Amino acid sequence: MGVFGTLYSLVLRWSAHRRAPWLLGALSFAESSFFPIPPDVMLAPMSMARPGRAMRFATITTLASVLGGMLGYGIGYLALEMVLPVIVDVGYVDAYETARSWFATWGFWVVLVAGFSPIPYKVFTIAGGAMAIAWWPFVLASLIGRGARFYLVAGLLAWGGPRLEPWLRRYIERIGWVTVMLLIMVVGLLSL
User: Fold this and answer.
1) How many CA atoms lie within 13 A of 86 on its CB side?
2) What pLDDT was estimated at residue 79?
3) DSSP for residue 50
4) Could you give the CA distance from residue 173 to residue 179 in angstroms, rounded to a whole number?
5) Residue 78 to residue 67: CA distance in whole angstroms
6) pLDDT-above-90 percentage for the chain
7) The VTT domain covers which part of the protein (predicted)?
């Protein structure tokens, strides 16, 4: 079993835990402000294993993610000087500068697109706070963007349900490496 197969098995075990919704909420909150792993890694297997609860899981993920985004906004607004060295150390400085530039041009729409896309959302929450963009449009765009993404993931995997699991297990290594390559390309494009 490869790297992604091992991780997939681990996440499947976590998603079956009785406290999995709490872990999902905590992961969603943390990812929106400081943690590097997206909540989709738990949302997807939880939705696939328990299709009847997929929309509940998407709601937990969306609300916790938006709350985490509010924390990210607060970090950018109140403590940017303290976190800027961390942004530099983890290699997000180019993405942060790109986010600032995009905010100056597109504002609300940047948050909405960042909330839906695989671009690190935390970069945009911190940049939004640092630039003091309007609070309520920020929250609304976060709800729409994050909600659209997480309900789409949960809905598709609930629709596929347990019959999708063998296919996913068979192709998880390929999917994982393609995802890594796409993320590298996105980071490369953001740093131009």
Assistant:
1) 14
2) 86
3) -
4) 10
5) 16
6) 28
7) 38-155
Q: Exposed, middle or buried, 89 (CB in 10 Å: 0-12/13-18/19+)?
A: exposed
Tracing tokens 């945009």 back to the chain, one arrives at: 124
Cα-based angle 171, 175, 176 (whole degrees, multiple of 5) = 115
How confident is residue 65, by pLDDT bands cut at 50, 70 and 90? Answer: very high
What's the token pair of residue 128?
Answer: 């939004």
Contact 48, 161 (CB under 8 A): yes
112-123 pLDDT, tens digit each: 888 887 777 888
What is the number of residues in the chain? 192
Q: Which of 125, 157, 122, 148 is nearest to 62 (CA)?
A: 148
Distance CA(114)–CA(166), nearest Å, equals 31
First to last CA, the chain: 36
Q: Which residue has the higher pLDDT, 17 or 7?
A: 17
DSSP 97-157: HHHHHHHHHHTHHHHHHHHHSSS-HHHHHHHHHHTT--HHHHHHHHHHHHHHHHHHHHHHH
Structure tokens of 157? 């995997």
Distance separating alpha carbons of residues 159 and 139, to the nearest angstrom:
29
Residue with tokens 């916790």: 64
- The mean per-residue pLDDT over the stretch 135-161 comes to 92
Place of tokens 């890594």: 180
